[in-house]
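Let's inspect a concrete specimen:
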Amino acid sequence: MLAKRIIACLDVKDGQTVKGVSFENLRYAGDPVELGKAYSEQGIDELVYLDITATNEGRKQIYSLVEKVAQNLSIPFTIGGGISDIKDAENLLVYGADKISVNSAAVRNPQLVSDIAKKFGCQFVVVAIDAKKIGNDWIVHTHGGKRPTERELFSWAREIEDRGAGEILFTSMNHDGHQTGFANEALAKLSEILTIPVIASGGAGEMSHFKDVFTEGKADAALAASIFHFGKIAIPDLKQYLVKEGINVRV
C-alpha cells in the first residue's frame, strides 16, 4: 500500500505566508522559502504554494518565488493561483514546479485541465476544489472561496478526473482554519467515486485528525497550514504518532 503523505500548505500574499479562518482574517506566518526549507528538514513529504490573491487581482504567478523554492528545496512542490492558460502552466514547469494546481480557471474553462494533462501528463495537474456545504449540498466556490458556482463537489470531481487530473485537492470551507477535524464523510465519498488520489485540506488541529482522515476519510494525503506554521504540531512527532497508530507514512 502506498504511504500516506503529509503536505504543508503555504498560502502566499504579497510575498509572505499567511493563514486565516474560513478564508478570512489573514495573519502573517513567515517567509515562504524559509518555511519550506524548514518543513523539508523536518520530513514533510510535499509542499503546496498557493498565491491566494493572484486570481482576484487578475495577475500571473510570482515566478521569482517558484524559482527560489526550486533552488532551495529537493522535495516535490505544487504551485497554484492565477493559472489561466497552458502557457502559465508551461512557465511554472520551466521555473521548477513539480506540479501545478488549478481551481477557478478549471471551473471557468474545464478544457484547460484536459489540455494541460495532454501536453504535460496527468501527474502534473492537481485540481483544487474549494467547496462549502450549504444545506445538503457541497457547492464549489472560486476566486479564493469568494464566489459560489453552480457546480457540485462530487460531479465536478468526476468530470475533472475524466479530463485527466492527476490529483484532487479538496478544501472544505466549512472546516478551514477551525482545527476541529477534516470533512471525513465528504472525503470518503470522493475516495469511493474516484480512482485518482484525494488530498484532504481544511480542519487539521490535532494529531488524531490525521489518523481519522486516513482511516475514516480514506484520503491519500492530508494537507495542513496553521498547525505547522505556528508550531502546534511538529512534523516528526506527527509521523511517529501515525506510525504507532498503524498508518503507513514515510519516516
Summary: The radius of gyration is 16 Å. The first strand starts at residue 5 and ends at 13.
